[in-house]
Structures are given as C-alpha cells and as structure tokens.
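Throughout our pipeline, every protein is held as a single compact record rather than as scattered files. Such a record has a labelled line for the sequence and another for the backbone structure tokens. The remainder of this section carries one protein's record, kept here as part of the documentation:
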Amino acid sequence: QVQLVESGGGLAQSGVSLRLSCKVSGTTFSMYAMGWFRPAPEKEREFVAAINYNARSTYYVDSVKGRFTISRDNAKNTVYLQMNSLTPEDTAKYYCAADGLPIRPPQSMGHPESRNSWGQGTQVTVSA
C-alpha cells in the first residue's frame, strides 16, 4: 500500500519561503509522477504542480509559476515543493499525490479520472 507523508507546512508571513516535503513508501517511487494539490473554491482540489518520474518534465498552475518549484530525489523517495514569495492566497492544506500509473507525463495527474494516491496533507498559512 502506498503511503505518503507530508511535512514542512506552517505559519509564514507574506513574501517568505517554505519548503514542503513528501516521503513515499510502498511503491517504486522512481517510476511514478508526483504532484501537489490544494483545495480551491469550486474545486475539490487544485492541481498545483507535478513532476514526471525522472524529473525531466514539470507542470505548474499559472498562479504559482515563477514562485513554486517542484523537485524530487528518487534515492530518498521524496518529492519537494519549494514555495517562494508566498501570499495569503497560498494559504491552504497542501496534499502530496502519487500517480496511479507509471511513466506518465506530469499533467496526467490532474485528469479527473487519475487514480492518484494521497497523503494526509500539511497546512500552510500565510499572513499578510
């Protein structure tokens, strides 16, 4: 069974940086795209960022482009989300996800029928 454990959330002031981590077990991590999601108005979850299995392809939602960077360390079974220039609009619980199928482009994780595995989430709160 795939297990994902997020860490790194917390309280931050506007303009500062946080780095989220997600440690994965129970699967061959290096074969799967990984992503980060957060709740959004009128959506169950907003697809924030994703990275393919070998880190050669990434996806970002427009609102975080240039501020957030997703990366992965396949030797450590860990994916990261570096969040810079945080704003109060970034306040959310961030969920790490593992793609349900191997060797797919990162955008696949945002498909409504994608069978992702999920972590429990880590809260990020940004004050003005």
